[in-house]
Each structure stands twice: as C-alpha cells, then as structure tokens.
Amino acid sequence: MTVKTVKYEIENITDFSLKDTLECGQCFRFYEDDKGGYTGVVGKSVIRAFFCEEEGTLVIEESGEEKGREFYEEYFDLKRDYGKIKKYLINKDKKMKEVIEYGKGIHILKQEPFETLISFIISQNNHIKRIKKSIKMLSEEFGEEIKDGSTEKHYAFPEPKKLASLAVGDLSDIKLGYRDKYIIEAAKRVEAIGEEEFKKYRDKCFTETKSYLEGFLGVGEKVAGCVLLFGFNMMAGFPIDVWMKRIMRELYGVSIEDRKTMEEISIKLYGKYKGVAQQYLFNYAMKKKIM
Q: Which of 14, 47, 62, 102 stands the most exposed, by the fewest C-beta atoms within 10 Å?
C-alpha cells in the first residue's frame, strides 16, 4: 500500500523553537528523533517536524489525513508576535527576563479540545513521562490506526463516542486509577452534545467556558485552566499546579496555598498575555527544579 506524504515548508518564522514548544508540558504526543526533529500525532495525521532556526523555516511531513499548511500555521501559533509579548512581559516585570530566556521559543499550541481535556484529566498528580505513556496506550487500545508507511504503528486519539461506550474496567490495563471514571464521564458529556458543539466553546467568553469545564467530574481549576489555554486557545488561562506554586513563591514570596494572590499577580503583571507567561514560568520552574 502506497502512503501519501505531504510536505509543507513554512518560512520567515521568528521567536520560535520546536523543542521549547513541544517539551514545555503542554502536549504529550511528540517524541524527539536523533536528528533534532519530532514525530507526533495530530488528529488523524502523523507528522514529522523539523525547524531550521538559521533559516527560520519549519518543515512538516504529514501522512494520514491531509490538513494543509494553514492548519499548521494555526496549530503552532505562527502568526502571533511572540517578540512583542516577551517585550511586554519583561517591561512589566524585570524578573521575567531570566524566566523567558529558559524557554524563549515557546508558542502556545492550538490543540483539539476533547483530546486536551482527557489528556489533562490524566495529568492530575502525574508526571510527563507517565502521562505520555498513558495517552499512547489509550490511543493504541481505543484509537484508529493511522497508516503512515513507517514500521512503527501510530494511532489517533480515541473519539468521544468510543470512550463514552466503555466501562471503568475497560481502562484497567492502562492503570489510570481514579481517573478512569473521570475520563468516561467526560467522554459521555462531550458525546451528548457532539464534539463539534464542544469545540464551539472556543468562541464563548472565558468565564462561561471555564465554568462549563469545571462542571465536568474531576475537573478543577488547574485542569480547566490547561484546557482553556491549550485546547480553547484562551490566553486568559493561567493554570496553577505544584510547579507554578513554587515559582510564584520563589519570585514573589507568595504562600504556596495562596492561589488568589497568584491570580491577582498574574492579572497585574501579565495582563492579556498571562497564558503565555504561565508557560514561560512553568517551563522555568521545571528546568530549574525549583522546590
């Protein structure tokens, strides 16, 4: 069977790093190869991506469902002026200069909302290596195989209908623990309104979408914040997890349990770019191993 591969070259890109973007904790389906590129699954496509920093060119080889160049420009958020955002954040708070330097090429991905919701339900009290393994196993077990011509098999993320049809015991081999019930209930709720209707929450106001997400079983402020930022592309999202608590204490002397003050600081210092600031801060805290 001949598998069609489409190649896109997106040029004149600045303030971007593929590594920073794919390894800052916002996505879990990409793996680095020995040539500095990344292979991952996006929807029903397998993509191999490589960024030439000297030329400012992102090269994407796509197999499976053909999405088109414009899709990847949006997915990697290549049209947003991140140089402007970084200048704004540093002018508001000089502490951000060092923070940003650790992940200055980070872009906020525009991911599928349902996959993002389930992925961050899995992320609760978990670490990145294990999250990636769990999502891979979930996709292999319940997702559709994508024919991309490689020796390694790749699978799309399971659709809401498939996960909604499962019983808790069906997920036992993946060892997700208490998250099993949350995943199935979330899938049932999305299946009930339809995935396309779920995606339309991207167009609603931040407060309404946040409230809606927090109505899902097992979804609190942190998970909702991640879905708002990485799934619905709402830059007002400012998810606070253990790493964020540590860095906010380190930089601003905030008590580790004082979420209210952390939110107030984020509004005052980061304004409309607080979602981007969150990723710089999260990345910095992890790389510095702030305890």
A: 14
Among the listed residues 76, 48, 46, 44, the one whose alpha carbon sits nearest the alpha carbon of residue 60: 48
Number of H helices, E strands in the chain: 14, 7
Residue the block writes with tokens 């609603």: 204
Range 272-286 average pLDDT:
97
Classify 291 as helix, strand or coil. Answer: coil
Report the Cα 134 to chain-centroid distance in Å.
15
pTM: 0.96
Long-range contacts of the stretch 41-50 (C-beta < 8 A, 24+): 41/139, 41/146, 41/154, 41/155, 41/156, 41/157, 42/67, 42/75, 43/67, 43/112, 43/156, 43/157, 44/144, 44/146, 44/156, 45/146, 46/146, 46/148, 46/150, 46/154, 47/72, 49/18, 50/18
pLDDT at res. 3: 81
| Euclidean distance between CA atoms 84 and 272, whole angstroms | 12
- Give me the amino acid identity at 4: K
- pLDDT at position 1 is 57
Dist CA 283 CA 131 (whole Å)? 17
Domains and CATH numbers, the chain: 5-79 (3.30.310.260), 113-230 (1.10.340.30)
What DSSP element (H or E) covers 10? strand 5-10
When pLDDT is cut at 50, 70 and 90, the band that residue 34 belongs to is: confident
Mean pLDDT score, 258-263? 96
pLDDT tens for residues 62-104? Answer: 999 999 999 999 999 999 999 999 999 999 999 999 999 999 9
Beta pairing, strands 154-155 & 38-42: unpaired
Q: Among 10, 145, 28, 138, which residue's Cα sits nearest to residue 70?
A: 10
